Amino acid sequence: MALIVQKYGGTSVGSVARIKAVAEQVAALRAQGHGVAVVVSAMGDSTDRLVDLAREISPTPAPREYDALLATGEMVSIALVAMALEARGCPARSYNGLQLPVTTTDVHGKARIKSIDATRLQADIAAGVVPVLAGFQGRSPAGDVTTIGRGGSDTTAVALAVALHADECQILTDVDGVYTTDPRMVPSARRLDRVSFEEMLELAGQGSRVLHLRSVEFAAKYGVNLRVLSSFKPGPGTLIAKEDPNVEAPVVAGIAFNRDEAEINVTDVPDEPGVAWRILQPISAASIEIDMIVVNAPREGRVDFSFTVHRDDYARALELARAAGAQFAGAGVAGNQTVAKLAIVGSGMRTQAGVATRLFETLAREQINVRLVSTSEIKISVLVAERDLERGVRALHEAYGLSRAPA
Amino acid sequence: MALIVQKYGGTSVGSVARIKAVAEQVAALRAQGHGVAVVVSAMGDSTDRLVDLAREISPTPAPREYDALLATGEMVSIALVAMALEARGCPARSYNGLQLPVTTTDVHGKARIKSIDATRLQADIAAGVVPVLAGFQGRSPAGDVTTIGRGGSDTTAVALAVALHADECQILTDVDGVYTTDPRMVPSARRLDRVSFEEMLELAGQGSRVLHLRSVEFAAKYGVNLRVLSSFKPGPGTLIAKEDPNVEAPVVAGIAFNRDEAEINVTDVPDEPGVAWRILQPISAASIEIDMIVVNAPREGRVDFSFTVHRDDYARALELARAAGAQFAGAGVAGNQTVAKLAIVGSGMRTQAGVATRLFETLAREQINVRLVSTSEIKISVLVAERDLERGVRALHEAYGLSRAPA
After folding, report:
1. Given CB atoms, is A390 within the 8 Å cutoff of chain B?
2. Any residues with CB less than 8 A from the CB of A398 and at least 6 apart, and which?
3. Which domains does chain B have, with CATH numbers?
């Protein structure tokens, strides 16, 4: 008998019919002899409706009250899921964030979970009762309602798995697992049976939005086995876990991409200490996040400087870069919004040579110009023209043999 | 500076516009230098929508989860009201039933408030902050969400006034006070400036549904001054308080009526000990509430026995009465659904003679047959044919001079 935490997202509990289907799945798992605890999100678009109500009251609603308002969405769904379980003879009890409590920091809208008091839940599970916990919310040390940011129910589920020492934390969603790349772009994309936390973080951070990033970090930190599953059709999903030392890691596990990038180039600046700081500091000071940063090797005492920002921040960042560039006689500032980033991700890169070579060979054969490159231990990211993105992802998916199941 | 608890019902917070209007009223009261705490109900028909959701899940939803679900309605409105107050520069904080907590018994759906921990609220008020408390809900000793029954927000407001030692508990609603009788029936009906708790209980219990009965009992028990006011138009409303010993109580304060009655007559039964019990016991055992009970004086060792029940219970009660009547040879059982009850209520009846005489004189003049009579210290109730009700109420309203303001 295993102890399993299951998290159902908003789509999975989006209607009465869906809630009944969730109850059926949970009851079936419990009938197999497993201990089950459930975390649920708010029904479908109910959070959006609450957000609209708040905006009608005030364009800048008081953060404490905004949290108290949004948290009601999950409170509705936990009661309905517990009701549906009880209605089919499976004992259940709902708990909102104030009740156990789920203790968080007191930063409204972006609180972090500090601990979950699992005493009542353990007693419930021991007695065959399924606890149904509200995701996304908690209680500040002062006793106020807090929320941990949108998508945060995944994090609640992982925190609950930690508190219960669960064997597995299953994230039930509208996709049936983590794929080698987005199947809408590459029809031969394949569901991965298993990825490591590090791979998942790189895949998620690069745009494969299956799981909330923070929940993966949290799971990695505490070594919680995560599994992404579809709540609509049966299947094994994808296990996200520590790297298995007995299994050779795939060289490339998947390909991530991101169309939200914009590139800024500050060219022909003096190669002196502090130059990078003088260019980037005003951008960071404006709370604009900088993603890739590349500086070429100096030539005659001058360097070129390139970086990327989110496309929404492009205009403001370009303006700030122009002001910074004006400090350096002869420097030029240019930008480009029609770029995209793609990245190959795989734990096997740590030990395998030739991975980068194949990347550049493949892109060259496709006549795709690589504008910027950045690398980490298990990832190589390249910036390309947006029109080349889809062709590049497909070619790389083929080149690394991702359409075929591993031997 | 007074400390005032204000309670706004569902109609008063039924829309964003209404919530903003409530915030304006509360802020105005606070700007006058008063300490203010607010209790709110769920927005308009939001509780009905939650009830519908629950019924879709199960015709008999688990009581614990049903309470957890319904309580979210008030949690939405307190956050919005507090937001609206903050938006207009009036510091405010919402509190749901779990937070203070509002401790109740653990009878789901019908819990009773045991205490309200007002520590945080007192600190808020001292700091110029308006606490906004969710009505209708609380926390059981085990930490579960409870509700205190529909209409229970009035009771929450009174309990809060007790906990805060407030000077007045104002119930803001869609009527501007307690009237001598229903103005829809008698256009000359007059708003009362003041009624005693006892009078209010008799008026409310007889059908003047302005306030939840339990809240009046609660206020009477703790001597809380209640005031019924309109949240839509300004005015002094009606103060419901202890009888003022310095003011002569009106002989008749108001006229209540009730169309939900049905009459059952068990005639010609032996005048023996235990007969009443044998007739009424099966009816009580079926959880049917009996209202008026009248037994006439025995004649030749036989008596007639009449009582009234709610019209919804009529068919079942008649059946039970027939079964009970069959025990007594020669007894007859009959019933009548087209009856109504009217009652004159007034603390002055205690000391004034001739009140009943005028009642019967007036009804006789109107050719209205009195079927049953029952009396209490401050009330005389009569059962009449339903077709005579309206004429009777109007004639009595005139006969006791209720259209004219007291001298």
Report:
1. no
2. none
3. 3-174 (3.40.1160.10)
